[in-house]
TrEMBL record:
Residues 4-117 form the CUB domain. It is found in: Membrane. Disulfide bonds join 4-31. PANTHER family: DISCOIDIN, CUB AND LCCL DOMAIN CONTAINING 1, F5/8 TYPE C DOMAIN-CONTAINING PROTEIN. InterPro entries: CUB_dom (IPR000859), FA58C (IPR000421), Galactose-bd-like_sf (IPR008979), LCCL (IPR004043), LCCL_sf (IPR036609), Neuropilin_MCO_CoagFactor (IPR050633), Sperma_CUB_dom_sf (IPR035914). This is DCBD1 protein. One of its GO terms (cellular component) is plasma membrane. Residues 132-213 form the LCCL domain. It comes from Syrrhaptes paradoxus. It holds the Pfam family F5_F8_type_C. Keywords: Disulfide bond, Membrane, Phosphoprotein, Transmembrane, Transmembrane helix. GO terms for molecular function: signaling receptor activity. The gene is Dcbld1_0.
Amino acid sequence: GDGCGHTLLTPHSGTLSSKNYPGTYPNHTACRWRLRAPPGTSLLLAFGDVDLEPSERCARSSLLLADPQAGTAYGPYCRNAVPTTPLLVTNSSTVTVLFNSTSHRSGRGVLLSYATSEHPGRGEWDSPDPPSPCCSVYCPAGCKDIDGDIWGNPSQGYRDTSVLCKAAVHAGVIADELGGQVTLSREKGITLYESAFANGLHSKRGSLSEKRLVFHKACHVPLPACSDTLEVAAFNASSWWHEVDALGQDRAWAPQRAALGTAGHSWAAEPGSEAAWLELDLGTRRNVTGIVTKGSSEQHDYYVTSYRVSSSRDGKNWRPYRGSGGQEDKVFEGNTDSHGEVSNAFIPPIVARYLR
């Protein structure tokens, strides 16, 4: 049977786990992952968790890593034969990871991450407890869906008990599908950490902690300082709704009402229209690093649940946003109600004058 759980494998880094992790993994399953790094590089593997039922020679459940180029193997590992170090440095660009289980009673299973030797690796790698005041940590791809909670948001920072790399995805400093190096500091905690929905992740509302994690674009330059709001010179749209209210008065949900923070009703496309779009003219070519959306609760519970983004430098030729090396147009997760704000980061940023 299929014993594979959450898996995201890219040429430069990735994260993988057994099925149901961190719940008990199933009986009688098997999974094989093949990790491939670019030629000329070697793989580094980090053991996040190896919790398999103990047995003689790991017969009931086992994790085995095979290095076909060097003809060596690591393991088998289980609860009474765990890896001696949390980081395994190989001399190979290809490693096969094998996970097997027979009949057993308990165990969270396996959680592994990997990266290639070409990454700087300055400081600690995916450390849950970064030193103060500033450090650089490498986060592999695939951290968004691993188990664990985060408290806080990009503007105020995150409670230091948050899963670090998951918080980095939420803050928009790395893309989950690529991972990468993040720079952060551990600063004095605050009384209350407000929840937020950003980059497809919900953070929690949390109480006081002694320290908080603050992500930086570069050391000593906090993220909020790099997040100035861009002015919009003009709005346009494929259509807009002309509402006739109970008193027979006409009210236009026009595109210029789409600016965040506009009092009253927002923009809305004409009811029944398909492939509706909203266009923003920034006046000149700008570097756009993200977007914040909100619904309209003015008499109507309206909001957009998902959307795509296109950009143009001349207003005529449009390019769909595909994110970090994607082959398909990226679909951004939008709002789940008409009240809350939702943030999404563009990694890499968009350089354009017009956005749709």
